[in-house]
Amino acid sequence: MKGRATLFCICLAVAVGFGLFHVKYKVQALEEELARLNGQIVHEQEQLHVLRAEWAYLNRPERLEDLNGRFLGLAPVMPAQLGRLTDLPTRPVEETEQGENEETTKPAIGAIKTGAAR
Amino acid sequence: MSILFGTRHTRTNIDGIAKQALETGRTRILVAGALFSLAFLAIGLRLADVTIVKPTGEPRLATNKRTPAFAAGRADIVDRNGVLLATSLNTASLYANPRQILDAREAADKLARVLPGITAGEAMSKLSSDRSFVWLKRHLTPRQQYAVNALGIPGLYFQREERRVYPQGKLFAHVLGFAGTDGTGLTGIEKTFDDTLRSGAAPVRLSVDARVQHILHQELQAAVTAFRADGAAAMVMDAKSGEIIALVSLPDFDPNLPNAIPQKAAFNRTTLGVYEMGSTFKIFTTAMALDSGASKMASSYDASKPIRIARFVITDYHGKNRWLTVPEIFIYSSNIGTVKMALEVGTKRQQDYLRRLGLLAPAAIELPEVGSPLMPSPWREINTMTISFGHGVAVTPVQLAQATAAVVNGGILPKATLLKPAKDAAIPGTRVLKPQTSRDMRRLMRLVVTDGTGTKAEAKGYFVGGKTGTAEKIGARGYRAKALVSSFAGAFPIDDPRYVVLAIVDEPHGNKQSFGYATGGWVAAPVIKRFVERAAPLLGIAPRASDSPEVARILDLKLPVAAKSKTKDRQGSDQNASY
Q1: Nearest-by-Cβ selection for B68 from A38, A53, A55
Q2: pTM of the full structure
Q3: CATH topology assigned to domain B77-206
């Protein structure tokens, strides 16, 4: 009885000691990981900062204009190109009825086509 | 214990000494036992206390106190939309310890191959010196740093340094200014907000818009090139809040290369340069005449004869040689008529109005480069006359823009600012003119563009209104007829002005397209037209049909023509002027 209790105590002590060291090393490893990640975060923030500067540099209006001239050829928007929704004429009613009579299967497309053709 | 008691029973006759020793031993054991039990009891209680009663130990969630933050050094400067205008980058600078260099010749050759701007000979002389520290190249790009590292030369080291970078290059040269190599702001916004920027907090947000700035810069540069001008200044200002959307002064410089800035380019013409604005000043003369009640829109003045005073003769450039109404005087830019209006306003009231419009005190803008206006002292009647058409008082373009904003926005003088105000911040401003005066002035300024000297500023659909100006510059011997300052000050859309625009070209020379003219109408007005056409869609202003009824209602004004036979009650002022 006494011997068994002693054995149990010794086993418990060993197990607890093992557990303690296990946790300790794990914490240490995690701390190292944390420090490494923190370092990485700072490094990446710095790189982000550089990239932001580069982004601003590459997006200079001057450069975009040059690229547009070489590849796209877009021109500034002229007043004639801008319109309002309210400026659009409303579609006459009889137009819709005609479209439905002609093509019952695809009334919507038919209506749009007639609209576009006018 | 049984052994103890057994012994006691068998040896009842034991002598007193032994018995006493036994008693002492028993007491000691008892005391020690009691002490131990107490100690264990205390430990047990404490154990129960910390584990069961109030477990205060480790928190359930670990917090990381070392939150990493990247130290950026000097804070960024961004435009109103968050576009980066200035930032600080950590760069690597290359230095060498020549004593550790094994083969200087080989190292120099390799370095010259990967680093632009370093010749092999230059590197060789540096690397073969007998010092232990020598700079090779400051502020390498990350790619160059990698290339140098890849060479694997012993004795080369990197030093981390901070460098101020302006990604937009020349575009904001005069707004931002620049910071020196030690990270101190030397000019512009960099100087004004040096302390804020140094503390490295949130970025400083300016009111400028990079896209609008680019368009204004480009159009102004085109005018400078086309008319072989000495320089130019232009700005766009929010008519109500006074926020400066774009500010360009030419010639300009690249703030990334602060050591190579010519003195002429460093000069900020928009805020530091003072100019006699010429006819653009008639905006204020006409406004004060209408506001004070000295003139009415229908008043007319005799502009048929030049005014002679002392040794001066005041004539009209676009002479009509007849009686002119106030709108006619304004749109044909009649000096004679304007002088007569100013004389009715009087010297005292002219000074008051100009002071209230902020034209006699330096502008309170957030730049260290602010010019003080020049004005005559004493202010005689002859000064009143010349100032009425913009000669005799020299102001900075930013003052002119501010005062123009007050004239068109309903009569409230805004405070010119380069900072973007908070969303719901109150707009500072003081009332300087009656709303009716502002309404009349907007009509007159629209007439200048539709029927007068500023027709070249008409951007179809955006309703530009304004006033042209052409001033002669003062030389060593009086005014020089060939050296002009040509300007246009206006606003759009003029029925409810959102933006004040201003362009001033310094010493333009007429060219073939302008038939040799170098006046405000030929030089500055087209800049405004092209700028408005390109920038208005970006500024969120929709074009409207030129016969739009809403605009017509506000701007409708028929040009009243003064009848020649009309007898006027202005005889007094006429005599005043007829020396």
Answers
A1: A38
A2: 0.78
A3: Penicillin-binding protein 2a (Domain 2) (3.90.1310)
